[in-house]
Amino acid sequence: MTRSRRSGTPVATVLSWLYALLLAAPLYYLAVSALKTNVEIFTRPFALPAHWLWGNFETAWRTADLGGALFNSVLISVVAIVLTLCLAVPAAYALARQDNRVARVVTGVFSAGFLIPPFAALIPTVILAIKMDLFYTREFQMLFLPASALPLSVLLLTQFMRTVPPALVESAALDGAGHWRLLFNVFIPIAMPGVVSVTILQLLTFWNEYLFALAITGTGPDVRTVQVALPTLVSDATNFGVLTAGTVLTLLPVYIAYSLASRRMQEALTAGAVKG
Amino acid sequence: MSTTSTLPGTRPGTAPPIVTGRRKAGGGLHSPRVLLLTIPSLVWFAVFTVGPLIAMFVIATLRWKGLLYEPTYVGTENVSHVFADPVFFDALRNSLVQVAIVIPIMIPLAFMLGYHLHTKPRGYRVLSVLYFSPGLISISITAMIFYGVLSPDGGVNGALRQIGLDSLATPWLADPSTALASLIAIDLWRGVGWTAVLFAARLASLPSDVVEAARMDGAGRFRIMWQIAFPMIKDYVRTLTMLQYLWTLFTSAALILLLTKGGPGTSSTTLSYLVYAKAFTQRDLGYSQVVGVVLLVLGIAGMLLIRALLRSSLENKR
């Protein structure tokens, strides 16, 4: 049985590796180009670099001010994730504890919100930032990102919190525990895998956010995120070696995180899309 | 989703008079008042998501030339502007072409690759890491990768020259006949593997005995895949199809902004990019938001269509 499962059909094997090759080729091209000059990139696109030009990384770091941009990205992502959890955890607790009509309406609101891509309301959101006097600031992004993350976060956390056995709730109630004690001592520990998944998933989403970061936080060197800083390396006379080096640097934090916790990350990201 | 066992009144034997003053003040551990805890998140959602969504319909009725000017009410004037503009119809056509190519290729291919991954073929760990990786890469990084790959002296043309197909080499993003196709190819590059990983994760959660039983009956691999595994995760296929449809329709603006700016001409302008460009580069917010409303309507209509298609075929099979 295992043999027949493992062998698969030749067509499937060939197709699956062909697609893998298609995925890997641009990533390989990216990695080798980061160490070359323009001339070498153009003339020997797939060869390993003749001279390893580590200076590209330094140039990219300096030109796009990636250090400052990385700091802005970390700051925005961390504040936004803390705010997301502060808003979503109590809401999920409430929805897991109650299943009346009001609770179902609230769940319905978040389910609908999950389907609508945030891009739909990009321009009105920019106007909101202007009206709040927070245009071209990091602060608006910190406030806005949690809102875009709430539907999925609340729905996922509610599912995890529903797994708390009623007996535990009863015994905590007999001990005279209030909602907050119940939440912190019983629900959050049991729903911890859910909290971790939501944190990973939304941190990645916040880190990768581009269009809102561009339109609202803007390209000012003191506030821009790393996703906005990277494309500033493109010009009429782009140095492709420097651009690809910058791309590698921007991608590195995510891949380091992935190599440290690949299983967790895969679980978190698939959980995020499994919830419809 | 079954009901939780913590519904109010599910504690038989708790006579009302026993409830102490302290518990009463706290609303009681089983009182529906716990739902007050959802208010902060609902307020947040209302201010930053629902509000802007409603504002879109209002802005669509305004003449508003740039973010720093005062708007005036013009009713349906923007709507007639938009529907008399050939650029809008180019964008509509491009968006329809985009989803009509991306979705029918992506979903079946991703399902088959996901099924293949699920059977744990040799080297499936390498495969799943590679398939998964576009899910980690942001739009701006994707754009920068393909800016290099598709540039006139980039990777694709380099590869074509090495295998002697110089005649096929072209500035992919600057050629009106290949710009949109390039963007569609990037959508597929990103989406297929990632969706396959999601399908594989879902298939792994199925009971394996049904598939085993089918295999015992001598059912072929292709038949098991499409006639047993597929119907079992049909709801999930429908959900992912809807999500991919919405993502493809709505989020192409960022990639286009970074790679082609909608050009050359309008050859790669989609509705999503038109919303962005009209607001930020051509300073016509009313026009932009009329297109935004069209996009929203198309999104909802497409979702309903996908729902109906994937539901009816399930019923036909039974």
From TrEMBL, chain A:
Residues 70-261 form the ABC transmembrane type-1 domain. InterPro entries: MetI-like, MetI-like_sf. One of its GO terms (cellular component) is plasma membrane. The chain crosses the membrane at residues 12-31, 74-96, 108-130, 142-161, 182-204, 240-258. Keywords: Cell membrane, Membrane, Transmembrane, Transmembrane helix, Transport. One of its GO terms (biological process) is transmembrane transport. PROSITE patterns: ABC_TM1 (PS50928). CDD domains: TM_PBP2 (cd06261). It is found in: Cell membrane. The keyword Transit peptide does not apply. Its main location: membrane. It is a multi-pass membrane protein. Belongs to the binding-protein-dependent transport system permease family. This is Transporter. It comes from Phytohabitans flavus.
Automatic annotation (TrEMBL), chain B:
Keywords: Cell membrane, Membrane, Transmembrane, Transmembrane helix, Transport. InterPro entries: MetI-like, MetI-like_sf, UgpAE/MalFG_permease. GO terms for biological process: transmembrane transport. The chain crosses the membrane at residues 34-60, 96-117, 129-150, 179-201, 242-260, 290-310. Residues 92-306 form the ABC transmembrane type-1 domain. Pfam families: BPD_transp_1. The keyword Metal-binding does not apply. It is found in: Cell membrane. It is a multi-pass membrane protein. Its main location: membrane. Residues 1-24 are annotated as: Disordered. One of its GO terms (cellular component) is plasma membrane. Belongs to the binding-protein-dependent transport system permease family. This is Transporter. It comes from Phytohabitans flavus. The lineage of its organism: Bacteria, Bacillati, Actinomycetota, Actinomycetes, Micromonosporales.
